[in-house]
Amino acid sequence: MTEEREQIDFVIGRHPAVAALRSQQAINKVFLQSGLKSEAIDEIRQLAQRRHLVISEVPKQKLDQLTDHQNHQGVALGVAAFDYASIDDLYANAQKKGEEPFFLILDNVEDPHNLGSILRTADASGVHGVIIPKRRAVGLTSTVAKTSTGAIETVPVARVTNLVNTVNDLKKRGMWIFGTDMAGTDYRDWNAKGAVGLIIGNEGKGISRLLKETVDQTLTIPMVGTVQSLNASVAAGLLMYQGFNSRHPVQH
To answer: Is the pLDDT assigned to residue 107 strictly greater than 60?
Structure first.
């Protein structure tokens, strides 16, 4: 992993806290709501004690303040900001699993809940890594971590200066790049075997013009309703699972 880090952050919620405590992520302090008892809280306390971490029992109001009044479920971990991976880390993740790389490229996704949901589906559907830009896009935050329910610990995320340059480099390494477009091929016919990268556009604007020019093939999700657009995480989920289906066909 690269050494790039952001400011101190918090992992919020029980499932994300357990995932973080079981991982190698640097954790500075554990905050538990005083008087709260449950199996999940007991497990968090035991995991923290095994790592010899400082545990602070604090009132709910203090946790509310620390987590900016998010749904913390009685637990928050003070952590060094999340590590970003390199592109080589993403390739290494695919190689470790003995598979051709399947990367997701997010073009200026701004909503942390969308990014968290996308990471959760990426973990479930066998995506080997996610690539995001450094500017005009959400990074790895506590909200992303909580929404991902632990997937932030298992799906490497690379943050790059220029998506167009990165995609062109991936193509030189033999990767076939797909993107979404209203006039594309029906996504249900997508064959995602081999080394593939899938671009998901911004929530409102879609894929930027320069990035769209790098795409080898466009895909479209047919819609028959009145609303002719899908939430970014929902669209990404449909496409990732079509990728999974074509890469792992059902064995009869």
So the answer is: yes
